[in-house]
Amino acid sequence: MTAADRTLDEFADVRAGDKGDTLIVGVFPRRAEDFALLVESLTPERVAAHYGALVTGEVRRTALENLPALVFELPGVLGGGVTGSPVLDGHGKTLGYHLLTLAV
């Protein structure tokens, strides 16, 4: 396995939720020493590109060093939110797990 074959799933867990049509994804490294790698690899631009056309605005990232965790806000990804979206994943739980496929 090369470094290019390694995905976020090998380093972290995610939890997802919603706020309107914005997907909120928390990324939690399994080992504290991997936090620096995630900070370097998971830029807002890379995360936005990973979700592609679903993102309708600027992706924001907040680093919570004391946890450690990264929190991403992805506007528009939920297509109207829980009450306005016709999709089955209105809360974004499955879409949160999609981030685990990103190469790091």
UniProtKB/TrEMBL annotation:
InterPro entries noted in UniProt: AtuA-like_ferredoxin_dom
Location of the AtuA-like ferredoxin-fold domain: 8-103
Protein name, entry field: AtuA-like ferredoxin-fold domain-containing protein
Organism: Actinoalloteichus hymeniacidonis
